Amino acid sequence: MTTPPAHVLLDRDTLALADEIGAQDTLPDMVKLVSGLKKAGHPQARIHHALEQVRLRRKARAKLGPFAERMLFTEAGLEQATRLSVAAHHAGRFQKTGLTTVADLGCGLGVDSMAMASIGINVMAVEQDELTAALATYNLAPFDNARVIHGDALGVNLTNIDAIWLDPARRSNGKILNDPSQWSPTLTEVFTLSEKTPSGIKLAPGIDRNLLPDHAEWQWVSADGETVEVVVWTGALARPGVRRAALVISGEGAHELTSPTDSADQPVGELGEYLYEPDGAIIRARLIGDLARNLTGRMVHPTIAYITADTPQHTPFATGFRIHRVLPYKMGSLKKWALDQNIGAVEIKKRGIDVDPATLRKSLPLRGERQATLILTRVGDKRVALVASRLEPAAVNTTGEGSHPK
To answer: Residue 31 to residues 27, 35, 36, 38, 147: CA-CA distances in angstroms?
Structure first.
């Protein structure tokens, strides 16, 4: 069934039914549930839309936590919505800069607007899609300092607006648009607007760096191990002396590495006892060299984002491994190792070697009881398989947290 009109989702009885069903810790057998709701007098369409909102709310918990329980969603809107932990950092940037009135242009379902409004920022949220604007209005209803406008992001009056948050629409009919000239607004229009008003512009993390303005701050953000965005900060929202930043958000909190430029490379050296895999935000921001120096480490290969070191250190900016054995990357050696070491399950990581980990795993005789990690990479001109185990944070020193190398 296609997404219904706004008035259907906003029907009082549908909302009440969604709340009633969602209050249950676990849903009973779906056939029995629907049968019971029909007997109670609910029409089929209402049941369908209420159950769909319950499903989306439960799916949204991973992104939005308890906020999801009172929100309304569409599948596409939820997929594109900012995670709450990330939106909180966006809002904090505006607050720390002293900007009190923000236009959220292309607000989607309103998650960033919610984060800003919740800390006292006045928000004008603008959304071109009628249904999405209606759901954003519902989601922002608890906040007196937020209002939603159904309209074109470039057509609204920005008088008395201190700053802009802008997430250009990069999809059409469910398809991702790779050409920035087809976005709404286009990337050129976005950056032109950002020259007049301090702005935060949310873009896909893999965007071509040549498209980004040199005068701005580029901040890559990862959340729970996934690199989710790059934000281009301009005007007063760009921090003095910072042009590259990697913000890593996890269960350990939020940590950031910053620099005025891409960091200089660290030389290649001998493989040590420890290996570090930088977070994706560090790699995207090209701050691997700074991280390697913080770890007193060196690169294993000039073109591969693995750092090696002689001492174990915990950093929020990388996953650490202890290397137990170095094997040649040959099937015969790997099969013999798996049999000799009684391996039954293996985690396979790789950089610099063209191999499908799932296919390789099926080729190994994994019949034992032990677990192991294999890291496939190149050291010098050799292709190797490193037998490793993950470092536990409590067992090592901590380094690199909150560093701002210059």
So the answer is: 11, 6, 9, 11, 40
Over the stretch 345-380, which tens digit does the pLDDT of each residue have? 999 999 999 999 999 999 999 999 999 999 999 998
The one-letter amino acid code at 182 reads Q
202: which strand partners? Answer: 231
Cα–Cα distance measured from residue 280 to residue 223, given in angstroms and rounded to the nearest whole number: 10
What string of DSSP letters covers 341-405? TTEEEEEEEESSS---HHHHHHHS---SSEEEEEEEEEETTEEEEEEEEEPPGGGSEE--TT---
CA distance 317 to 276: 9
Identify whether the C-beta of residue 9 lies closer than 8 Å to the C-beta of residue 72: yes
Which amino acid, one-letter code, is at 262? D
Q: What are phi and psi of 315, to 5 degrees?
A: -140, 140
Q: How many residues does the chain have?
A: 406
* SS3 label, residue 248: strand
Q: Where are the alpha helices (DSSP H) in 159-218?
A: 187-194
The contacts of residue 283 (CB under 8 Å, 6+ apart) are: 305
- CA 71/CA 74 separation, integer angstroms: 10
8 A C-beta contact, residue 150 and residue 127: yes
Q: What distances in angstroms separate CA 252 from CA 87, 126, 224, 349, 392, one per listed residue?
A: 17, 34, 10, 23, 13
Q: Give backbone dihedrals phi and psi of 21, rounded to 5 degrees, phi first.
A: -70, -40
Diameter of the chain by CA atoms? 73
Tens-digit pLDDT profile for residues 227-278: 999 999 999 999 999 999 999 999 889 999 999 999 999 999 999 999 999 9
The answer, as to whether pTM is greater than 0.85, is yes
Which residue in this structure is represented by tokens 């790059």? 230
> b/e per residue, 234-267, with b = 16+ CB within 10 A?
bbebbbeebbbbbbbbeeeebbbbbbeebbeebe
Tell me the one-letter amino acid at 139: N
Q: How far apart are CA 310 and CA 400, in angstroms?
A: 16
Question: What's the rounded Cα separation, in Å, for the pair 141 and 125?
Answer: 12
Query: Which residues contact residue 167 at a Cβ distance below 8 angstroms, ignoring those fewer than 6 apart?
Result: 80, 82, 105, 106, 107, 108, 112, 201, 202
Peptide bond into 185 cis (omega under 30): yes
